[in-house]
């Protein structure tokens, strides 16, 4: 039984890391796989929170030089200050709406059925946006206007529905608003840092009475594997989407969502 739990924890850590920053919904995958394998790990939500922190750390490591330059040059460089403002404005809608809708989202929308349908609809939306997106006008985050950043942030709020995908909503919203693919993907990475830290901190606060360190080994293996898998994705995704676009992810979403609907209906 212990060996099975370790394998399940490792699987969930890898899945979290691989899916957090691509437009396929890490939360949706965690819900579906957790439902399929019946994962019975550490009590409370400490395992889920820990592996998400592993994915966040991967972004911080991958872009450590950029983040350090932002901190050092912000007082003197107007372009860096515009970069920071864009991230903060894009983060604001999720922070406000998430705080008010947290209970409804967790109690009502966290369902395998919701995830499966969202995966399919999101895949169709990605294919449509890839075909109809306007000619890119923005190729640098430092040139984002406050209105553009806030618009992308509002799009990110769609990801509060499990299965939509935070990165997918952010990137597709940016494409519709005229941002070039590679820049849209990078902005999604940077926006993930305050968004995921905020969501994680809020989850910890809301579940503070149930969090324990039981199963520390399971937590550790999930955290490490989530970090490693996410680091691989972050370092390769920008180059990949620059060459291939997002259509492969859309097809994957539609296939997984359809298969899950069939399994759920059969079960």
TrEMBL record:
Cellular component (GO) terms are: plasma membrane
Q: Does the keyword Transmembrane helix apply?
A: yes
State the top-level EC class.
hydrolase
Q: InterPro entries attached here?
A: UppP
Molecular function terms from GO: undecaprenyl-diphosphatase activity
Membrane-topology annotation of the record? Multi-pass membrane protein
Q: Which UniProt keywords apply?
A: Antibiotic resistance, Cell membrane, Cell shape, Cell wall biogenesis/degradation, Hydrolase, Membrane, Peptidoglycan synthesis, Transmembrane, Transmembrane helix
Provide the E.C. number(s) assigned to this enzyme: 3.6.1.27
Q: Where in the cell is it found?
A: Cell membrane
Q: Name one Pfam family in it.
A: BacA
Catalysed reaction(s) here are: di-trans,octa-cis-undecaprenyl diphosphate + H2O = di-trans,octa-cis-undecaprenyl phosphate + phosphate + H(+)
Q: Which residues cross the membrane?
A: 49-71, 83-104, 110-129, 141-164, 184-205, 217-240, 246-266
> Superkingdom, according to UniProt?
Bacteria
Q: Main location per UniProt?
A: membrane
Q: Per the UniProt entry, what is one GO biological process?
A: cell wall organization
Extract the NCBIfam families matched here: PRK00281.1-2, PRK00281.1-4, undec_PP_bacA
Q: What else is known?
A: Bacitracin is thought to be involved in the inhibition of peptidoglycan synthesis by sequestering undecaprenyl diphosphate, thereby reducing the pool of lipid carrier available.
Q: What does this protein do?
A: Catalyzes the dephosphorylation of undecaprenyl diphosphate (UPP). Confers resistance to bacitracin.
Q: What family, per the record?
A: Belongs to the UppP family.
Q: What's the name of the protein?
A: Undecaprenyl-diphosphatase
Q: Which organism does this record belong to?
A: Limobrevibacterium gyesilva
Gene that produces this protein: uppP
């Amino acid at each position: 039984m212990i060996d099975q739990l370790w394998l399940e924890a490792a699987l969930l850590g890898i899945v979290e890391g691989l899916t957090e920053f691509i437009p396929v919904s890490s939360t949706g995958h965690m819900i579906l796989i957790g439902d399929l394998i019946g994962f019975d790990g550490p009590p409370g939500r400490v395992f889920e929170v820990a592996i998400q922190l592993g994915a966040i750390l991967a972004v911080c490591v991958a872009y450590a030089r950029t983040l350090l330059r932002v901190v050092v040059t912000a007082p003197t460089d107007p372009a860096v200050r515009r970069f920071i403002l864009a991230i903060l404005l894009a983060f604001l809608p999720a922070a406000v709406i998430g705080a008010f809708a947290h209970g409804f989202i967790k109690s009502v929308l966290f369902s395998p059925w919701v995830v499966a349908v969202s995966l399919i609809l999101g895949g169709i939306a990605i294919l449509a946006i890839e075909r109809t997106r306007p000619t890119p006008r923005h190729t640098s985050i430092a040139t984002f206007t406050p209105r553009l950043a806030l618009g992308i942030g509002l799009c990110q709020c769609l990801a509060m529905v499990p299965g939509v995908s935070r990165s997918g909503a952010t990137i597709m919203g940016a494409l519709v608003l005229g941002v070039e693919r590679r820049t849209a993907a990078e902005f999604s990475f940077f926006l993930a840092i305050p968004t995921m830290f905020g969501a994680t901190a809020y989850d910890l606060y809301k579940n503070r009475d149930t969090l324990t360190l039981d199963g520390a080994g399971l937590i550790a293996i999930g955290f490490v594997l989530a970090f490693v898998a996410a680091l691989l994705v972050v370092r390769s995704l920008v180059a990949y989407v620059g060459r291939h676009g997002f259509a492969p992810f859309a097809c994957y979403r539609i296939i997984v969502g359809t298969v899950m609907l069939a399994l759920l209906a059969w079960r």
